[in-house]
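User: Phosphate transporter. Structure?
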Amino acid sequence: MQNSPKRLTKPTLDKDLDKLTRVEEAAHFVSRGLVAPGIGMIFLALAMIVAGSYVIDLPGAAIIVAGAALAAYMAMNIGANDVANNVSPAVGSRALTMGAALVIAAIFETLGAMIAGQNVVATISEGIIPPSSMPASTLIWAMLAALLAAAGWINVATRLGAPISTTHAIVGAVMGAGIAAAGPTSVDWALMSGIATSWVVSPLLGGMIAALFLFFIKETIVYRDDKIVAARRWVPVLIGLMTGSFAAYLLISPLAHMTDLGLGQSLLVGVATGGLVYAVSIPYIARQSIGLENRNQSLRTLFRVPLIFSAVLLSFAHGANDVSNAIGPLAAIVHATDNLQAASGDGLPRWVMLIGALGIAIGLLLFGPKLIDIVGKDITKLNPMRAYCVALSAAVTVLVATALGMPVSSTHVAVGSVFGVGFFREWYTRHARRRLDYIRKRGGMVASEDPEDNNPEETRRRRLVRRSHFMTIIAAWIITVPLTAMSGAIVFGILNALFG
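Assistant: Predicted structure:
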C-alpha cells in the first residue's frame, strides 16, 4: 500500500477554542462549589472593618462600608474566575508547580492592581459618569446601585453557568445607574464609544500580535534544520525583549510620577534591563538544551522560561485592568463623600486599591488550585509555543489598554489571540515556503488537497464551532451591558426611593 501523503492542514484552532471554553466552564463549576466560604466571609468582614476605620466619622460611612464589602466580593470573583487564563499553561507544561504558580500569580495580580490600576479605575469611577453631572449625594447612590447590580448579575450568571465579562457588567451597571440618576446626558458617550471600540479592537489586536509572535517562532526556530541551536539563539532574545519592554512600560506609564526619567531615558533603562536578562538567560537556555533531540517535542522544554514570563506579565496586566471592575464604583463613592465634606477628593486612598488587589489575590488562592487542576490537562494540550504566543499577546494588549485607561475583557482578548494563532497556522501550513522546503528536504510528500474539501460535513462543523465562540463574545456585549444597565437603573430607583 502506498504511504498516504502528509497533509498540510492542522485542525487545531477549534481544539484550542474548546480548551479555552473548558477554562470558563471550570471556573463556573468551581464558583458553584463555594470553596473555602469561611475564608471568603472573613475577608469581606475585614474589608468592611478597614473601610469603617477610615470613614467612621463621615456621613455616608455605612454606604462606603457596604460598597467595600461588594467590591471585595467582586474582586474575589475576578481572581477566582480568570486565574486559569493566566497560569494554567505554565502549570500544565510543568514550567511551574501548582504552589509556585499560585504564589507568582497572587503577587503579580496584586502588584498590577496597586501599581498600574489607577488609569482604568479613574475611567470607571469618573469617566463614564462625570461627577459634575449630578450632585455628590446622588452619585453615591448611583455607584452603590451599580455595584449591587453588577455583583448580583455576576452571581446569577455564575449559578447558571453563563460565561460573562465582569468588565462588561460593571460598565453597563455604571451607565444604567447614571442614566437613571441624571438622564442620558450624564453619560460621557464619547468615552463609552471608545470603550465599546476597544472591546472590538482588543481581540483583533491580540490575534494579530499572537500571529506575529508565532510567525517569528516558526521562521526562526521550528522549521530550521537544527532546532536546538536556533532555540539557543532566539529564546534568550524573546525573554530579553519581554523583560525590557515590560520595564520600559512601567517607567513610561504607571511609575512615571515616581521617577524623573523622560521617555528616552525610560527606553534606555528598558533596553539595558532587557540586555541584562538576555545575557543571563543565554547560559541557562544552553544548559537546558543539553542532551535534547532535534525535534519539536524538545522545544517544549526550552519554552518553559518564556511561558513563566508570559504568565507573570498576564497576571500583572489582568490585575491592572480588572481591579477597576471591583473598586471603580467604590472609589467614586469615597470621592463623592469627600466632596460632601468639602475635603480634598484628589488621589485614591490606598486602602481602596488594597481591597481590590487583595480580593483578586485571595479569590485566586481560594479557588485557584482546584480550577487549575480541572483545566490543566486540557489546556496543556495547547502547544506550549502557541500558549506562550496567546498569553504574551493577551498581556501586551491588556497592558496597552490599561495605559490608555480602557477597561477590556482579558478572556475575550485571549479568545482573539487563539483565533489569531489558529488562522495564522492554517495559512502558514498551506503557504509558507520555509515549511514546504523543510518537509521536502526530509523526504515528506506535500499534499495538494485540503482534507476539508473532501469532507463538507467536517467543514461545516468546524465553522459552527468557530461561529459559536464568536457569538459568545458578541452575546456578552449584546446581553450583559444592556441587562446590567437596566439592573443598575432599577436598583438605583429602589435605593433612591428608600433612602435618597
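Residues 16 and 382 are 6 Å apart (CA to CA). The first helix runs from residue 13 to 33.
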